[in-house]
Amino acid sequence: MYQIKTFNAISPVGLATFTAEYQINQKDAQPDAYLIRSVDLHEHDFPRSLKAIGRCGAGYNNIPLERASEQGIAVFNTPGGNANAVKELVLAMMILANRQVIAAANWTNQVQPGADITLEAAKSQFNGQELLGKRLAVIGLGHVGSLVANAAVNLGMEVIGYDPYLSADAAWQLSREIHRAPSLAAVVDQADFITVHVPKNEETTGMIDQELISQFKPTAVLLNFARHGIVDNQAVIDALNTKRLRWYSTDFSDALIHGHPRVTILPHLGGSTVEAEANCARMAAKAVMTYLTTGNLINSVNLPALQTPFASPERITLIHRNIPNMLGQISSLIAQHQINIENLANRAKADFAYTIVDVSDFANPDQQAALIQELAQIPAVSRVRLIHQPRGGNK
Ligand SMILES: NC(=O)c1ccc[n+]([C@@H]2O[C@H](COP(=O)([O-])OP(=O)(O)OC[C@H]3O[C@@H](n4cnc5c(N)ncnc54)[C@H](O)[C@@H]3O)[C@@H](O)[C@H]2O)c1
Ligand SMILES: O=C(O)[C@H](O)COP(=O)(O)O
């Protein structure tokens, strides 16, 4: 029986994906895996039993990846699982900003009941503009950015994108009508809307800063539904107050922007739809179950993708540092026990690597335990697991 511990509100549809071999939130259980959303795990101590973290969502800056790898924990996210939900909200926020929807609805609510709110004098203060023909800059053209960009093309907008790391798969998703900018300065030039869809990391923290905002059209609307801190909020407030920016819409609040009349803040709602929450929880549950029962890695963010069918009923998996002679040490220990390697797969991702070794049968349980212990003692190995091929197929 595997033990799953959840943090945050995880969709019941996703939790129902777990089969009978899994218990969820059992009291006093040693968790094999966490299922989480945005809970901040940077100060959290991982129990030794923990082998996997499934992040039901896209962003994983709430998880200490280096420490997870060092402690032999595979971390998974759910790429694209909530992208449509974010796309729809970003489109809504562009329309809200351009049609003064919130201000007009608030005004209507506070006039005397029965007053003629359709009078020209009253309604002309809420005159808006259309999206058709306006220029949208999309920074980051991954799962969310590409959907926003394509939808904006379909709404008749002129779309220009910037993504220096665009994958070939992501490029295939993009409408051919989307222009590609060579730099941040070029993408924001003359844009009516600028929307940011990059992960938060060292490079992207503060990427929308005072200098970049000074190159916006003063009538531009800025949208940040990616992460707090990617946009420099002080620079936004300065630009709004000096009429260098028209509007800021974001999913992330702080004291600097709170209550500003030309800022719309939502309580991190981008991925909060029934459909997106179910998609993400289902994807995370599947990745965690696959990893626990087969050792195969799908959608891991700290370890490489590695999937291989069982070549024999016994499989050893190892998470280790990506340094020379790891495979030499692993295979010679296995050979010392007169055990044959039926298949070996290895792949690295940055400082860590993952190895799957399918081996011939052990002579007895003692030999099995001895080998696993010896492998775990190799310096730079952070986790060794022995997995028996699941019944009912070669997954
Ligand atoms: N508000 C929400 O609820 C919500 C929901 C989903 C995602 N997000 C956030 O949005 C981010 C993007 O989500 P996604 O699913 O599209 O991720 P993704 O990984 O599919 O796409 C991110 C894209 O950003 C690009 N990129 C990385 N660094 C860049 C840089 N310096 N300049 C330009 N482009 C860069 C990458 O090449 C990639 O194509 C997530 O990391 C998460 O933080 C927020
Ligand atoms: O990165 C994400 O997927 C979003 O920010 C959603 O976060 P949430 O799961 O806390 O709503």
Characterise the protein shown here.
Pathway: Amino-acid biosynthesis; L-serine biosynthesis; L-serine from 3-phospho-D-glycerate: step 1/3. This is D-3-phosphoglycerate dehydrogenase. It comes from Limosilactobacillus alvi. It is an enzyme of class 1 (oxidoreductase). InterPro entries: ACT-like_dom_sf, ACT_dom, D-isomer_2_OHA_DH_cat_dom, D-isomer_DH_CS, D-isomer_DH_CS1, D-isomer_DH_NAD-bd, NAD(P)-bd_dom_sf. There is one protein chain. By secondary structure, the protein is of the alpha/beta class. It folds into 3 domains: 1-81 and 274-303, NAD(P)-binding Rossmann-like Domain (Rossmann fold, 3-Layer(aba) Sandwich); 83-265, NAD(P)-binding Rossmann-like Domain (Rossmann fold); 304-388, Alpha-Beta Plaits. It is 31% helix and 20% strand. It contains 13 helices and 16 strands. It has helices at residues 12-15, 65-70, 83-99, 101-110, 120-123, 143-154, 168-173, 184-188, 210-213, 233-241, 274-294, 326-336, 365-376, and strands at 2-6, 22-24, 33-36, 52-55, 74-76, 135-139, 158-162, 179-180, 193-196, 221-224, 247-250, 263-265, 314-321, 341-349, 352-359, 381-388. It has a 7-stranded parallel sheet. The protein has a 5-stranded parallel sheet with strand order 2-1-3-4-5. β7, α7 (168-173) and β8 (179-180) form a beta-alpha-beta unit. α3 (83-99) packs across α6 (143-154). It is elongated and about 90 Å long. The chain binds nicotinamide-adenine-dinucleotide and 3-phosphoglyceric acid (3PG). The site of nicotinamide-adenine-dinucleotide has 32 residues, from α3 and α6.
